[in-house]
Amino acid sequence: HLKDEVFVGSQVLIPFGNQELISGYVVALHDDLAATQFGAERIKESALQADGQVVTLPKTRPIVEVLESEPLFDRAYVSLLHWVAEYYAAGIAEVIAAAIPSDIGPRIKRIARLAVPANDTLFVQLPRSFEPQEEVIMRQLQNAKSKVVSLKTLKQRSALTQSKFYAALTRLRQLGVVIVENENAAKAAPKTVQCVIATGEPGRTKKQQEILSALSRAGGQLPVSQLSKTASTTASTIKKMCSDGVLQVTQQEILRDPLQSLVDKHASVPAPSLTPHQSAAFSTLSEQLTDILDHGRPVEGPWLLHGVTGSGKTEIYMRLIEDALKRGRSALMLVPEISLTPQLAQRLVGRFGNQVAVWHSALSAGERFDTWRRLRAGQARVLLGARSAILASLPDLGLIILDEEHDSSYKQSSPSPRYHARTVAFERGKRENALILLGSATPDVATHRDCVAANRIVLLPERVFKQPLPKSVLVDMRQEYVMGNGGIFSLPLQEKMAQRLQRGEQIILLINRRGYASHVFCKACGFVVRCRNCSVSLVFHQTAGEREGRLVCHHCAFTATSWRTCPACKCPFIKQFGLGTQRVEQEVADLFPAARLLRLDSDITAKRGAFEEVFNTFASGGADILIGTQIVAKGLDIAKVTLVGVLAADSAFNLPDYRSMERGFQLLTQVSGRAGRGEHPGEVVLQTYSLDLPALTLARKQDYATFAQQELASREAFEYPPFSQIIRVVLSSEAIEQVEAAADQLAEELSSHLEQDFTEDQVKILGPAPCLIERIRGRFRYHLIIKNLAENRGRTAITRFLRTRRGQGGLVMAIDVDALDLI
Fold first, then answer.
1. 574 with 537: CB under 8 angstroms?
2. Staple 13 to which of 65, 125, 584, 743, CB 3.0 to 4.6 Å?
3. Cα 575 to Cα 448: distance, rounded to the nearest angstrom
4. Angle CA(749)–CA(754)–CA(757) in degrees, nearest 5?
5. Cβ count near 220 (within 10 Å)
């Protein structure tokens, strides 16, 4: 009876378990349940459980109500989401939850009320006596002021266990004493305001004529509050004009657009002239876009725009977006960090106006709701966003751009689905026949290898204004210590900082750890202050105005007060050791008290709009020195920055991870590229305790080709990606015995399952073993590292087996395909 109302993408209500009604999305339509993937899998599972006996299909549930007549997505889009679920061993519900804002769905509130008047005779009017639990529920409803109580509140007030509460409630419903209903409301809805428009009638007084003139100058329509300010009038005057028929009040929807302030200031910005290298790169990529969009040539793979820092990659992105829009297609541009979107948004709005929208996790519920509708309606044709934007529903997609494609922020580590935006972009580009462009000064070595082999690479070897790349120097901090300098700043760095401050130039300092000190321990007994929930030391934080400071866990956010004496031996020798952004800020202030300082790390950017505030202040010359974590290495283009100092350049190479060399090389190259983008040449000081580290020397020279060659040779020798695929399985539990036993059992069962179809050289299982951080948030963690050398066949076999396994008794299993985080 609903066949004409239900479509793929419809929001519906269905009965489900104790909740009775829940909302969901239709992801497929079929006449025969047995022919669906769901039905076939359930029949197969049931048949196995029944030892080959004939079994019946699982129960189905009727759709009670169609909530939205207009589907939220189409078949092609849900097909992509199914692919994500299959590839990353995730549930389709998890993928939909990641792709579609939860604010769009309905909020279902279950409420209860008495079916008869609430008075004391209620308990004697019925033909049976009540159980104590039933009387408790009835008394709560009888005493409720509104006579209506949500089930959640009713359960809390009754102080009954869940099973006893619902059993008693069910009996009361069957007796007709209590009625339970649904109260549905959208989590987010269009925002409307009262606006005033002119009816065409002339003003009867001079004041009314002035108000009509002000309204006309504003375009003929204004919100009531804004008209009051603009025309210097009152609400009562406006009300009188409405009663006289001169004005009319209407409800108008207002789009919640985080870019509205930029759109309001929008003035068309002409495209700058291209350098010869830019022209050649754009010509090649524009030709590819034409072949794909105009001639329907299938997309075979991504193109790589490999350009040094400051070479003008963004302008090429802009021109390709313009080409896609001219052909009636939309464009998606991804950046690795939310913090980078404001800078690019300014440039995009300057070129494309209100066609631009942004998509990331920092949007409000209303902004997400309105942006989603603008995208679906085709009103926003250019989408700028972080990782999650790759899953946004964007019709007529013709171009996908991943800026800084090497960045690990494109990979989601938790929760499921643990997808990589770059991998999803490859699949989406092929499905929608859209050009895929990856841009970076330090591309992922696997990306670079594949694009070079396929001859899908264009180069930008020079900066736009032909400024030289910054000169880098290595400073051996061991020698500094020998010469009597025990501080965190080498003498060469101090001298160069003083020179820049004297000349009015700007400085960026990188220390890739927030906080004041990395750990606290006692010099008398060696006691290290550790988190009570995690297997890590607490980090000492001390901000301006704090006297004692505090200890914080960067994994579970546990906080403790700092100690003056050791809790183990009671000696007053407990000290802070290691570096953090807060300590660097304090030391810089001591060295250069007149310098204006800014700090940029996740402690600062946790507040909405904080990054933009810091960036705008620094870019406008409101500060001399910017101190930050790796966030300062990404996207900052400030002409007056002529010096970059990296205080612990070797720390990035020392992580227990097969990608640590590549990550370190990329970080140092990227942060070095922030210097010397204006008229004055740039310089970089890399402080290190490992002067002979090859990757560090190559980063100083910005010799990407040699580094990529050496890194690939090393990975091939140890069978790491791209010469294998890493699938990581993490098991966690509050009981270490449980997680250890479960990990051993899983490894044994997986090995037995795979040995039938794969040799030991094709799939290798390493572990199980405790994770490097064995305990996080009170849960012990073991993992298996699976090296898959059998490509898609191996991945499919591994993930299908793992998807049949579920944690029980508090055990949780997380599957990470193409894992980057092995810690």
1. no
2. 65
3. 46
4. 150
5. 11
What radius of gyration, in Å, describes the C-alpha atoms of the chain? 31
- Name the helix (H) or strand (E) containing 672: helix 660-672
The answer to whether 490 and 475 have CB atoms below 8 angstroms apart is: yes
Instruction: Classify the phi-psi angles of 396: left when phi > 0, otherwise alpha if psi is within -120 to 50, otherwise beta.
Output: left
- Among 529, 542, 511, 741, which Cα is nearest to 633's? 511
pLDDT at 252 over 60: yes
Provide the pLDDT confidence category of residue 45 given band limits of 50, 70 and 90: low
Which residues are 763's β-sheet partners? 788
- 8 A C-beta contact, residue 182 and residue 21: yes
Helix, strand, coil proportions of the chain in percent (round to 5)? 40, 20, 40
For the cut 60, the answer to whether the pLDDT of residue 55 exceeds it is: no
188-235 per-position pLDDT tens digit: 677 777 888 888 888 888 888 888 888 888 878 888 888 888 888 888
How far does CA 188 lie from the centroid of its chain?
21
Rounded CA-CA distance 408/385 in Å is 15
Alpha-carbon distances, residue 605 vs 512, 551, 609, 726 (angstroms): 15, 20, 7, 32
Q: Which of 210, 200, 263, 265 is nearest to 238 (CA)?
A: 210
660-672 and 694-701 helices, crossing angle to 10° = 30
Backbone φ and ψ for 785, nearest 5 degrees, come out as -110, 120
**How many helices, marked H, and strands, marked E, lie in the chain?**
27, 31
Q: DSSP 3-state assignment of 111?
A: strand
pTM of the model: 0.81
Residues contacting 54, CB < 8 A, separation 6+ = none
CA 700 to chain centre: 31
Q: Are 249 and 239 in contact (CB under 8 A)?
A: no
DSSP 8-state class, residue 411: B
**DSSP H helical ranges for 120-265:** 122-125, 132-143, 151-158, 162-175, 206-217, 224-230, 235-243, 260-264
Which residue, 27, 50, 47, is CA-closest to 37?
27
